[in-house]
Amino acid sequence: MSDAIREQSKRLDLLISETDAIYHEATLKLGLTDSAMSVLYTICLFDGECSLRDIIAYSGIPKQTVNSALRKLEGGGVLYLKWVDGRKKRACLTEKGRELCVGTVLRLMDIEDEIIGKWLPEERELYLSLTRRYLGALREKVKEL
After folding, report:
1. How many CA atoms lie within 13 A of 13 on its CB side?
2. Fewer CB within 10 A of the end CB, N or C, for the chain?
3. How far is it, in rounded angstroms, from Cα 81 to Cα 30?
4. 43-69 tens-digit pLDDT
5. Under 8 Å CB-to-CB from 37, ≥6 apart: which residues?
6. How many Cβ atoms from other residues are within 10 Å of residue 93's Cβ?
7. Other CB atoms closer than 10 Å to residue 68's CB: what's the count?
8. What confidence score (pLDDT) does residue 109 get?
9. Which residues contact 66 (CB under 8 A, 6 or more apart)?
10. Which portions of the chain are predicted below pLDDT 50?
C-alpha cells in the first residue's frame, strides 16, 4: 500500500473519530447517554416506532446495550415495547418520549439538516454515494476477516 493511501486512510479514520467525539459532546449537552441517544435517534428515523432488529442494525451499538437502554427508557416512560406478529418487538415513543426527542434528537437532526442543506445538491449526492460505497466495501472486507 502506498504512503499516500495510508495517509489518506489515517485522515479518514481521524475524521470519523472526531465526528464520533462531536456527537458524544452533543449527546452530553442534550442530557442523554450515548446509548439512549442512539436508540432514540434510530426510532426517530422511523417516525417514532421501530423494530428492535432495526435499532440494533442502525444504531451501531451491541444488542445487550440496546436492550439495557430500552429498559431504562421504558422505565422512564419515554417508550414502550409492543409485540408484532407474536414474536417481534417494536419500540414506540410515548408522548413523553416524543417531547424528549423534540428537545434532543430532533434538535441534532435539525443541525445536520442545516449543515447538509448548505451543500450543493451534487455535493450531497457525491458525499452519500462515496459513503455508501465505502460502507459497502468495508462491510464485505470485514466479512472476510
Report:
1. 7
2. C
3. 24
4. 999 999 999 999 999 998 999 999 999
5. 23, 27, 30, 104, 105, 108
6. 22
7. 16
8. 97
9. 35, 39, 52, 55, 56, 59
10. none
* Radius of gyration of the CA atoms of the chain, in A: 18
Is the pTM higher than 0.85? The answer reads: yes
Which one-letter amino acid corresponds to residue 134? Answer: Y
Instruction: Report the C-alpha gap between 42 and 56 in whole angstroms.
Output: 9
Helix (H, G, I), strand (E, B) or coil at 62: coil
In angstroms, the CA 12 to CA 7 distance is 9
Distance CA 98, CA 93 (A): 6
Residue 87, SS3 per DSSP? coil
Q: Which pairing describes strands 49-51 and 79-84: parallel, antiparallel, or unpaired?
A: unpaired
Domain enclosing residue 130, as ranges:
3-143
* Amino acid symbol at 10: K
Cα(124)–Cα(104) distance, rounded to whole angstroms?
24
CATH code of the domain in which 32 resides: 1.10.10.10
Counted domains in the chain: 1
